[in-house]
Amino acid sequence: MSAADSPAARLQALFEGHRLTPTQRRIAHSMVRRAADVPFLSSVELAELAGVSQPSVTRFAVALGFDGYPALRRHLREVAPAEPVPDSGSVNEYQQAVEAEIQNLRHLAEALADPVPVQRAGRLLAGSRPLPVLGLRAAAAQAHGFAYFAAKVHPDVRLLNEGGSMLHDRIDAAVHAGASALLCFALPRHPREVVNTLAHAKESGLTVITVADSAFAPVAKVSDLLLPAPVGTGLVFDTACAPMLLGRVLLEAMCDELPDAQARLEEFDAKAAARGLFVE
Question: Which residues form the HTH rpiR-type domain (predicted)?
Answer without folding.
Answer: 7-83
